[in-house]
Amino acid sequence: MHANSLIWYAAYGSNIQKKRFMYYIKGGTPRGSSRPHPGCKDQTDPRDDREMRMNRSLYFARRAKDWNDGGVAFVGQDTVEGTGTLGRLYLISAGQFMDIFSQENGLRSASIDFDRVKKKGFLDIAESWYGRVLYAGKESGCPVFTFTSPLPLNDISPNAPSDAYLRTVFAGIWETHRLTIDEIVYYMCTKPGIKGNYSWGELHELAMKSRNPA
Q1: 68, CA 20 to 30 Å: which among 60, 110, 142, 198?
Q2: What pTM was estimated for this model as a whole?
Q3: DSSP character at residue 65
């Protein structure tokens, strides 16, 4: 696949919020972060974006310094029935996807054989948090890819995300899917890393703040 070929990047964590995602395209330091993003070599805006529901499970794990040592979002390898994971598709070039993958994994550059990913369903590119690239089907004739942990959930202890991270995810879900506050909370409350760490009321308050930021 040529670097200029168009593909869909499926975002399901903080990158659901377009403003946050655009730092990976354009470069810069997001508000509240200490880590600058170099941006993509090709800084063209996404050609399109739309809502998506991925038939994989969502969970929160690891300890991210940029998010107050809270957990960050991952999806499982196996497909699941039901709602799955709410996310957002961005239509970008294959080259931009590789640059975004590199930024997420702290790599100088990465080379991804997308045809192999499609054939196998996934491919482990790096031994890092988001080192596995997944193939997630097609949308409007273009392939859909995302990335997640190479390790199964059983090998990673769930960890509660920070309030700031959750507000960012909620903001992205709100602007993309236009769900009600209760629907967003219901979707999130049973996810590993959330369940047992946040009450319904706490999630409801965070979702409200994401809808009406100060």
Answers
A1: 110
A2: 0.94
A3: G
Total number of residues shown for the chain:
214
Q: Residue 136 forms beta bridges with which residues?
A: none
**Quick one: which of 166, 1, 138 has its CA closest to 70?**
166
Q: 162 lies in a domain? A: no
Q: How many CA atoms lie within 13 A of 17 on its CB side?
A: 17
In Å, how far from its chain's centre is CA 124? 17
Residue with tokens 């810069």: 28
**Structure-token pair, residue 155:** 């090998």
Asked if residue 52 belongs to a domain, the reply is yes
> What beta strand segments (E) does the chain contain?
6-11, 48-54, 56-64, 70-79, 85-93, 122-124, 132-139, 142-148
User: Could you tell me which of 175, 168, 165, 188 has the C-alpha nearest to residue 59?
Assistant: 188
Using one digit for the tens of pLDDT, what is the confidence trace for 152-202? 888 899 999 999 999 999 999 999 998 999 999 999 999 999 999 999 999
pLDDT in tens, 67-84: 999 999 999 988 887 778
Asked if residue 161 belongs to a domain, the reply is no
Domains in the chain, number: 1
Task: Answer yes or no: are the C-beta atoms of 168 and 148 closer than 8 Å.
Answer: no
- The residues near 81 (Cβ < 8 Å, ≥ 6 apart) are 55
Q: How confident is the model at residue 27 (pLDDT cuts 50, 70, 90)?
A: very high
Q: Which domain holds residue 82?
A: 6-153
Domain-embedded: residue 196: no
